[in-house]
């Protein structure tokens, strides 16, 4: 029955209903034909009984006297009177089975054995119109005054009964065909109408294009039936999915802002320290304006401090501004990430291990913005996990057409809420790291994968990204 699987339900149900109607029609036709056959058998038996009984009354004395001519004359008169009736041939025999007379002497000669005529003959109670022949044969005893004095063999024409049976069969076939055709059409339309909500539900589920849409209220049947409840349940699920997606989007935005807040706090300390030195340099210039060497040293200090502030500001802008065009990743982006993470590393007195392969990064065709977000969020969480005087690291290399970013830290293992945010797409549980769900979304949008390992007191998170992002995006 596997061949039925591709057929839509709106087709299979009418076909099943039509098959059941064909079965019912066949059974009903058999019952009608059986009833008609029983009526016809009863009719032919009644006619044969009347024929035999009438001949027995008329021929009984003649057979006892072996009056052959009177027997023949009686049969001839009976045949003449019964012209147009069913009797085709009748023969009368004595007690020994020798023919005394027949309506067709040439076919059944006198003094012949009646058994030759009655080879296929049956008794009166077994007489039946079986449809094999238009003539049925009957062999019955000739009884007179309670005594069997001979035998009567007769052939009866039942062609009209067979014609009536064939006509009834034809009418049944035509009637059943018309009824089945009409009922199948009506059933098909009715089932299609009843299954319209299911068809709409299937279409809504298969043509979502990543965003399910609710079933319009006009397409939901009235009442509280199973299909109505199914459609309303689906609409509730669509609403819940949309609410979940919106909540996760807002949470990702909030986590992004939390990460930026932490980064801004670190950058504020990074900027504030040089500002103190710059202000001292300006005071020195004002106080010792007449000493060129002091002024030159102070100017050099001002230049180094301002350049450092410029680099920090530029890196911050590159990290957070939204470029109208996608810019591909370069080794300078990792230098910016290192500059941005350095204040947090210094604040926590962390040991930073940095290994970036410039040739691998240069050969990649990956957008810079998402990669910077991924690396910075993972490094911020690694710094928080490593704690005071811990160790964090970043490795960027290419392997087999894949850009691999690996962030490590010597802190404790990641808790389950943080792992759920980083590795799963399910609902978010309370707790977890900052920006980890954003990292997963960004990696998934780039066609990448995330792997997490914690062993020997070190946590390693590896993000694998296709180096040919444009080709991957085109395939998706």
UniProtKB/TrEMBL annotation:
Residues 192-246 form the HAMP domain. It catalyses: ATP + protein L-histidine = ADP + protein N-phospho-L-histidine. GO terms for molecular function: kinase activity. Its EC number is 2.7.13.3. InterPro entries: HAMP_dom, HATPase_C_sf, HATPase_dom, His_kinase_dom, HisK_dim/P_dom, HisK_dim/P_sf, TCS_sensor_his_kinase. It comes from the Bacteria. The chain crosses the membrane at residues 169-195. SUPFAM superfamilies: ATPase domain of HSP90 chaperone/DNA topoisomerase II/histidine kinase, Homodimeric domain of signal transducing histidine kinase. The keyword Transferase applies. It is found in: Membrane. The keyword Membrane applies. Keywords: Kinase, Membrane, Phosphoprotein, Transferase, Transmembrane, Transmembrane helix, Two-component regulatory system. Residues 266-469 form the Histidine kinase domain. Its main location: membrane. Pfam families: HATPase_c, HisKA. This is histidine kinase. It comes from Roseibaca calidilacus. The lineage of its organism: Bacteria, Pseudomonadati, Pseudomonadota, Alphaproteobacteria, Rhodobacterales.
């Amino acid at each position: 029955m596997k061949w039925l699987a591709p057929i839509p339900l709106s087709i299979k149900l009418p076909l099943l209903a039509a098959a059941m109607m064909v079965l019912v029609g066949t059974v009903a036709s058999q019952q009608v034909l059986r009833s008609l056959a029983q009526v016809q058998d009863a009719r032919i038996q009644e006619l044969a009984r009347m024929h035999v009984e009438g001949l027995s009354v008329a021929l009984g004395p003649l057979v006892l006297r072996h009056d052959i001519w009177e027997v023949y004359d009686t049969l001839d008169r009976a045949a003449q009177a019964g012209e147009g009736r069913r009797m085709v041939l009748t023969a009368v025999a004595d007690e020994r089975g020798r023919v005394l007379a027949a309506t067709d002497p040439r076919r059944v000669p006198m003094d012949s054995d009646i058994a030759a005529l009655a080879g296929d003959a049956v008794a009166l109670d077994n007489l039946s119109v079986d449809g094999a022949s238009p003539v049925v044969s009957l062999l019955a005893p000739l009884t007179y005054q309670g005594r069997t004095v001979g035998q009567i063999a007769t052939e009866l024409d039942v062609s009209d009964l067979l014609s009536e049976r064939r006509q009834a069969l034809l009418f049944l076939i035509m009637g059943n065909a018309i009824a089945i055709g009409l009922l199948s059409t009506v059933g098909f339309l009715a089932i299609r109408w009843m299954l319209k909500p299911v068809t709409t539900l299937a279409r809504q589920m298969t043509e979502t294009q990543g965003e399910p849409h609710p079933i319009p209220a006009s397409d939901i049947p009235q009442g509280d039936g199973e299909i109505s409840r199914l459609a309303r349940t689906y609409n509730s699920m669509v609403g819940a999915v949309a609410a979940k997606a919106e909540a996760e989007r807002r949470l990702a935005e909030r986590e992004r802002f939390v990460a930026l807040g932490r980064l801004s706090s670190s950058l504020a300390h990074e900027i504030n320290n040089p500002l103190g030195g710059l202000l001292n340099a300006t005071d020195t210039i004002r106080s010792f304006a007449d000493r060129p060497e002091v002024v030159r040293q102070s100017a050099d200090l001002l230049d180094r401090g301002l350049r450092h502030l410029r680099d920090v500001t530029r890196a911050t802008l590159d990290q957070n501004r939204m470029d109208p065009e996608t810019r591909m990743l370069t080794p300078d982006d990792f230098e910016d990430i290192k500059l941005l993470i350095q204040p947090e590393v210094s604040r926590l007195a962390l040991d930073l291990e940095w290994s970036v392969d410039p040739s691998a990064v240069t050969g990649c065709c990956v957008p810079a913005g998402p990669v910077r977000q991924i690396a910075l969020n993972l490094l911020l969480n690694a710094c928080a996990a490593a704690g005071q005087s811990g160790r964090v690291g970043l490795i960027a290399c290419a392997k087999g057409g894949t850009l691999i970013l690996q962030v490590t830290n010597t802190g404790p293992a990641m808790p389950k809420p943080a792992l759920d945010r980083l590795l799963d797409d399910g609902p978010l549980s309370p707790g977890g790291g900052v920006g980890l769900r954003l990292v997963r979304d960004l990696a998934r949008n780039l066609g990448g994968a995330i792997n997490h390992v914690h062993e020997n007191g070190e946590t390693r998170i590896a993000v694998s990204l296709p180096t040919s992002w444009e080709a991957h995006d085109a395939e998706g």
